[in-house]
Design brief:
This protein is α/β, with parallel strands linked by helices. It has two domains: 158 residues, Rossmann fold (3-Layer(aba) Sandwich); 116 residues, Rossmann fold (3-Layer(aba) Sandwich). The protein is 44% helix and 15% strand. The chain contains 14 helices and ten strands. The chain has a six-stranded parallel beta sheet with strand order 4-3-1-2-9-10, sandwiched between helices. Strands 6-5-7-8 form a four-stranded parallel beta sheet, with helices on both faces. Helix 2 links the parallel strand 1 and strand 2. Helix 2 packs across helix 12, helix 3 packs parallel to helix 5 and helix 6 crosses helix 12. The radius of gyration is 19 Å and the shape is globular.
């Protein structure tokens, strides 16, 4: 039985008192469950923090929508988190990160905000001594060329090749993270991409979709030796920790590590049962439909 959408109560976004603001949660949103890999990395990097996670499951996937539509959706989902009260926003969706950041910064100028593309691009540039960078992502992210732009702003001389790998999304959501089928699909995607870099392949491969980290082991196994993986979830978590630390907004240590139930509130715009079932794969911890609040945007 589907729960009735719950109302969202308004509260201030930020306090001028950093000691008060430090106790606010970090807001995270994605079109669905893939962003839970980012939440997982955030919790590892900052075990004392509280989080709000919103999956816009009623309107996924974002990758097939126009940029204007995704930007509008991002503003709507962000409003839910802002109304509850957050000290920072993490856009845990590559597609939304590629088109929505200017609008979010304009709508909420006082709210620290980061997507996943800039941290991933920065890490790739640091990990590429020869400036040879490969990127796999969904079709929408590849077509938008967001990673190419972010990389070239830092390394104008970089050689970049990209490839959409949409089937990785389906594999991840089914929990198929190893086995011959996964290996064959990985080779089908990655062999042609590696061939675009003669003389040893690229320096690194960017996992340009938040679904892809759960397939990291299978992906790494078919790459040429020496090609490292860049997980935008991990790099984003480091960026967020550094930004909050620089602003004096890290939550004071609270003793023993807390469970997901103690530190995260989950919201979805459709089907909490499926959100919980598939979300466990990405979060790496049990998740019950009763943990997920249904919201209406």
């Amino acid at each position: 039985m589907t729960p009735t959408p719950s109302p969202v109560h308004n509260s201030p976004t930020m306090s001028t008192d950093t000691s008060t603001s430090a106790h606010l949660p970090i807001g995270v949103f994605d079109s669905g469950v893939g962003g839970l890999t980012v939440l997982r990395a955030l919790r590892r990097a900052m075990p004392n923090e509280n989080f709000l996670y919103l999956g816009d499951t009623a309107r996924l996937p974002y990758g097939t929508k126009s940029g204007a539509t995704v930007a509008r959706y991002a503003l709507q989902t962000t409003r839910v988190l802002v109304d509850i009260g957050v000290k920072m926003l993490v856009v845990a969706c590559n597609t939304a990160s590629s088109v929505a950041m200017p609008g979010l910064s304009e709508a909420y100028p006082g709210l620290p905000c980061t997507g996943v593309i800039e941290p991933g691009a920065a890490a790739a540039c640091e990990a590429a001594p020869r400036g040879r960078i490969a990127v796999i992502a969904t079709g929408g992210t590849v077509r938008g060329a967001a990673y190419q732009g972010a990389i070239l702003r830092r390394r104008p001389e970089a050689t970049i090749a990209t490839r959409p790998a949409q089937l990785f999304v389906a594999l991840a959501e089914e929990g198929w993270t190893d086995g011959q089928v996964v290996t064959d699909i990985a080779r089908r995607y990655l062999d042609p991409l590696m061939a675009e870099f003669p003389e040893g392949g690229p320096d690194c491969l960017v996992l340009g979709c938040t679904h892809f980290p759960v397939l990291a082991q299978a992906i790494q196994a078919v790459l040429p030796q020496g090609v490292c993986l860049i997980d935008s979830a991990e790099t984003t978590a480091r960026w967020v920790a550094e930004e909050l630390g620089a602003r004096g907004l890290l939550r004071p240590e609270a003793g023993a590590p807390r469970s997901v139930k103690e530190s995260v509130r989950f919201f979805a715009t459709d089907d909490p049962e499926r959100f919980a079932r598939v979300g466990e794969i990405f979060l790496g911890e049990p998740l019950s439909p009763s943990d997920v609040t249904l919201v209406d945007l």
